[in-house]
Amino acid sequence: MPPYPPGARLLARPEAVEPCPACADPLGRGYPTCPTCAERVDAFWKADWAALAAAAGDERELAAAVLAAPLGTHAWTCTDWAMRVFPCPVCRSELGTGPACPHCVKADQARWGWDHAAPAGAITANEHALRLAVAALRGAGERRDTVLAFWRLSLPFLLVGAVATPVQVGRIRVHLIAGRADELAEAPDFAAMAALADLPWRTG
Ligand SMILES: [Zn+2]
Ligand SMILES: [Zn+2]
Question: What backbone phi and psi angles, to 5 degrees, belong to 19?
Fold first, then answer.
């Protein structure tokens, strides 16, 4: 069985949600448009890639080798990074993100096999959600506005290690569909986002 090395654990996570010094939103919420938000989030992927690339020569060759290796040979972060380094041979977009490109859809779907097949402890619920958020915000998978808004709002909390319960996810999605994104953006954590409807000034 491949080793399934964990990902995104070389650097310490931020201890608390802080405003981004560049865009002033909670750090990570500007991903990937705000360069500072993008840099701080990508740092966890980059650290794993740098550790792998230190022993290799050409980065593009390494990316091709990582993508060709059996699932679980490398950390999930390295698969994601390889998909950025090695563009889609069909549509030339970042691999996995090409709109309506079957090759991209296939590459995006294939990467999630890692999360499903990994042994216990190789990837946490928080790390899986962080991976989903970053992939979605880079343009992979379904592109519904509410899905993207959900990940954008969640990323600062995922970055500090939090994870929403399925019940909280359901409630937050209901609030998003109800057009309450601005109120959700003010909430300090997942619990507060989910509890939005219970605020007295909404019910009174
Ligand atoms: Zn920012
Ligand atoms: Zn493509």
Answer: -70, 145
CA distance linking residue 22 with residue 2, whole number of Å: 41
Q: What is the pLDDT of residue 201?
A: 54
CA of 37 to the centre of ligand 1 (A): 4
Phi, psi of 26 (to 5 degrees): -55, 135
Residues of the chain with pLDDT under 70: 197-204
Q: Is 204 helix (H, G, I), strand (E, B) or coil?
A: coil
Tell me, in angstroms, the distance from the centre of ligand 1 to residue 26's CA: 7
Cα gap 196→185, rounded to integer Å: 11
What is the whole-number distance in angstroms between the Cα of residue 99 and the centre of ligand 2? Answer: 7
On whether the CB atoms of residues 28 and 18 are closer than 8 A, the answer is no
For residue 76, report the distance from its CA to the centre of ligand 1, in Å.
24
Task: For residue 180, report the distance from its CA to the centre of ligand 1, in Å.
Answer: 21
Distance 62 CA to ligand 1 centre (A): 30
Q: Is 90 exposed, middle or buried (CB count within 10 Å of its CB: 0-12, 13-18, 19+)?
A: middle
pTM of the model: 0.94
164: helix, coil or strand?
coil
Distance of CA 43 from the midpoint of ligand 1 (Å): 14
Indicate which ligand has the atom closest to the C-alpha of 90.
Answer: 2
- In whole angstroms, what is the distance from residue 21 CA to residue 25 CA? 8
Task: State the pLDDT at residue 40.
Answer: 98
